Task: structure prediction
Amino acid sequence: AQSVTQLGSHVSVSEGALVLLRCNYSSSVPPYLFWYVQYPNQGLQLLLKYTTGATLVKGINGFEAEFKKSETSFHLTKPSAHMSDAAEYFCAVSPIGRSAGNKLTFGGGTRVLVKP
Amino acid sequence: DTGVSQNPRHKITKRGQNVTFRCDPISEHNRLYWYRQTLGQGPEFLTYFQNEAQLEKSRLLSDRFSAERPKGSFSTLEIQRTEQGDSAMYLCVAGELFFGEGSRLTVL
Result:
């Protein structure tokens, strides 16, 4: 079974400061890894994903994440926070292989507050 | 526009009533997923379809829940004899990436 842990249910950052959201996963084999963003009363939007290849993945809106197999982590960062980054962020994993159905297992989410 | 339309967006019902949600992907996707999201939590997998075949159901999907995808395009999720614990956002996902905006169920 796979599981995802997001450290910190709430994160507060100042505008222009670094955003760092932590995600650790548990899986018998390295899975596919995802970060999603959810704005109020909306569905989830994919920020970035890691499947294979380069472990530093760049996504939309200036976000990036690095897959560290030895640490079973996939932390999300953005060098400079913008007010529009205020939202809830979810880390997710899915098993590799089409027979596994590619269903996503999500972490509990981290709500980001950006202070002016 | 997420490419996935869900209706109704919000449903308020009394306990014991039946409700049905519909998911319409704009473009064709072989796989379609349903997730449930409660307040302050991440989405939880409910079930998924490969074309019209329902290939997996979560333990969360009690026998009061039924999902269909009759022609391999749109899908419905029905909840019978709703309970207050069913109050949640029900999310449809087309392919692996396209999330609908969800249908929020409130059971009074």
